[in-house]
Design goal:
The complex is a heterodimer of chains A (about 290) and B (about 325). Chain A is mainly α. Chain A has 14 helices and no strands. In chain A, α10 (about 180-190) packs antiparallel against α11. The longest helix of chain A has about 35 residues, at about 255-290. Chain B has helices at about 20-25, 50-80, 85-95, 95-125, 135-140, 150-160, 165-170, 180-190, 195-205, 210-215, 220-250, 255-260, 270-280, 285-320. Chain B is about 70% helix and about 0% strand. Chain B is mainly α. Classes of the chains: A mainly alpha (about 290), B mainly alpha (about 325). Chains A and B meet through α1, α2, α4, α5 and α6 of A and α1, α2, α4, α5 and α6 of B.
């Protein structure tokens, strides 16, 4: 039914609008296939999730979402993600500055490895970080002597979230910093502004949209992250249990309603973040004519 | 240029598509009060910081990346080979390991080829024609990037699980989707859905429709036009999308974990086997499998860098 509907709709558009603009063939066919495949793989399954929540009464939904364990899992996921994204914002700015503005041995290599947290499968990152920060690990050992326990505590979750978020701020800000007009800084400097002043009053303000976008992307990624976190987390209910793990646990207990309700809350949160990022991008674009 | 954004890793957006240019120019704050008259610095120092500051920034960046990125990667290989090469090789030769490798390759082959075909079709529809709702369509295609992997698996459990919408029907007809290859493939297709389309859309948008229109007006059929004109123009971008799609397909953990059922020797992909072996304290075996996935990631990064250079060159030559 979907296929027929979408092909028909697409066909309607062809005859009215597109025929004027494009002489290329295949709009009806490709659009129909696109909408069909999109519906089957993405839209219908996601709609199923929301349909499932409608089977719950509002009280039931509220009861699940505000239960102590769920609330704590959501707090841990969102709170630690926010903290990790802040670290990514700060360190990402420093890394991108070093990569773009300075020449040092190994710069290109370090530039390339920024992408490793994207490319490395999350389970591999998870076991590697756990091994590294466990009490007998290369970093866990020395830290334990200082009295800092990382693995199997909320600190471990935070560390994994920092790892997974590294590329976002760097890769969002990098092209902007590269394209930044050198004349702006030169003007500021020749007008007598100190370098400190130029960086914090002139350069960083023009990077703000990119910085915020990178921050939001890192935050969103960390909230949904599962593979790299669960190994190092310890997974103690109410203490070091992230929301995605609680979904998996509820599923394994066949408590579908609970799993669905938590998933819906997380989905809504990520939709809000997408919306915010979209607004950020639009804001960044509207700043051009103002210039 | 559309303004849609997603949780897509920024690197997977081709440079041509990144809204970078749009973000660059910002209004200068006109703050006169903060500007003190000073001797103007020499021109070469205008755009850099004093030596010690430079040193501290570089040191911070390098040590952060070393601790958080290099060390985890080194740990994978060090742990895999901690009992020697023979232990490493015999861990990889285990039947369980071999079946996980086979399943991972099978699932990646299915999901990458389907997403390849879809990506090309979607990119054709989106870039070669004008229609309303285009931005919305691209946002919908990007949706899987913003969904937690666990939720990507959950949606298929809700559809095909025993309590799912189609659960009873599937049971009655003895069709196995969940805890079997179809479910794992579906979840993988879901999470890798946007990669190919994302790589092609900016490229094809940039290239426009003139060449194709010329081919059509000279009497070529639609398919001839695509294979003779469009495909040669987009081949590097297509490869780029397939590369990233494949890396994610082989490495996906969360979504697959939810739908797999963890049946040993049957429904465990490589990332799932890493987890199982690790939880059983079989560290050498776990890291041996992990090392294969880490190598996949490294190779992917190298090829990606090469492809990005090609794409940049193509960019320059087409601009001329």
């Amino acid at each position: 039914m979907w296929a027929n509907l979408s092909t028909a709709q697409a066909g309607g558009i062809v005859s009215t609008e597109v025929a004027r603009r494009s002489t290329l063939p295949g709009f009806g066919l490709t659009m129909g296939l696109t909408l069909t495949w999109l519906s089957v793989i993405i839209l219908i399954p996601l709609a199923g999730l929301f349909l499932r929540t409608f089977e719950l009464s509002l009280d039931q939904f509220w009861g699940i979402v505000t239960s102590r364990r769920t609330l704590n899992a959501l707090k841990i996921s969102f709170g630690l993600s926010f903290a990790a994204a802040l670290v990514n914002l700060l360190m990402g700015t420093i890394i991108v500055w070093a990569l773009v503005r300075y020449r040092f041995p190994g710069r290109r290599l370090f530039d390339a490895i920024v992408d490793i947290p994207f490319a490395l499968p999350t389970a591999v990152a998870g076991v590697a970080l756990t091994q590294l920060f466990a009490q007998k690990g290369w970093l866990g050992g020395p830290l334990a002597e200082l009295g800092i326990k990382v693995a199997f505590t909320p600190v471990g979750i935070f560390v994994a979230m920092v790892f997974i978020g590294i590329p976002f701020v760097v890769r969002t800000v990098q092209p902007v910093l590269i394209d930044l007009d050198p004349e702006i800084e030169e003007a500021a400097a020749s007008l007598g502004a100190s370098r400190w002043h130029t960086v914090f009053r002139v350069i960083l303000p023009s990077l703000i949209p990119a910085l915020l976008t990178g921050f939001a992307l890192a935050f969103a990624r960390a909230v949904g992250e599962y593979g790299s976190v669960i190994f190092i987390a310890g997974n103690l209910p109410n203490v070091s249990e992230i929301a995605p793990l609680l979904i998996v646990i509820r599923l394994s207990e066949f408590r579908y309603a609970d799993a669905t309700a938590i998933a819906v809350v997380m989905l809504m949160a990520s939709f809000i973040i997408i919306f915010a990022v979209n607004r950020l991008q639009r804001w960044a674009q509207t700043r051009i004519p103002a210039h | 240029m559309s303004t849609e954004t997603t949780l897509l890793p920024p690197t997977t957006q081709l440079r041509t598509y990144a809204p970078s240019a749009d973000l660059t120019v910002a209004s200068l704050p006109s703050r006169r009060e903060g500007v003190r008259p000073q001797a103007p610095p020499s021109p070469q120092n205008l755009r850099t910081e004093p030596g010690p500051v430079r040193f501290i920034i570089i040191a911070l960046a390098v040590s952060f990346l070393t601790v958080f990125v290099v060390l985890p990667l080194v740990v994978v290989f060090a742990s895999a080979f901690s009992k020697g090469v023979m232990a490493y090789l015999s861990a990889l030769a285990e039947p369980e390991a071999l079946s996980a490798i086979r399943l991972t390759l099978l699932v990646a082959a299915i999901s990458v080829s389907l997403n390849l075909v879809f990506g090309v079709i979607a990119a054709w529809a989106i870039t070669k024609f004008e229609f309303s709702g285009k931005t919305t369509l691209i946002t919908l295609i990007d949706l899987p990037f913003s969904v937690s992997p666990v939720i990507s698996g959950l949606v298929f459990v809700l559809l095909f699980g025993a309590q799912g919408f189609f659960g009873t029907w599937l049971q009655a007809h003895n069709v196995h989707i969940l805890f079997a290859v179809p479910g794992i493939a579906l979840a993988t297709i879901f999470v890798t859905f946007p990669f190919v389309a994302r790589a092609l859309i900016p490229l094809m948008q940039e290239q426009g429709t003139q060449e194709e229109e010329a081919a059509i007006s000279l009497g070529a059929s639609g398919l001839q036009t695509f294979f003779r004109v469009t495909l040669p123009n987009i081949k590097w971008g297509l490869l780029y999308g397939v590369l990233l799609c494949n890396a994610r397909a082989m490495g996906e953990f969360g979504a697959v974990s939810v739908v797999s059922g963890h049946i040993r020797g049957e429904t465990n992909t490589m990332p799932l086997l890493v987890e199982i072996l690790y939880n059983e304290y079989q560290f050498v075996a776990s890291f041996a499998i992990a090392s294969l996935l880490a190598m996949l990631a490294l190779i992917t990064l190298v090829v990606k860098t090469i492809l990005e250079r090609r794409l940049d060159e193509g960019q320059i030559s087409s601009d001329d």
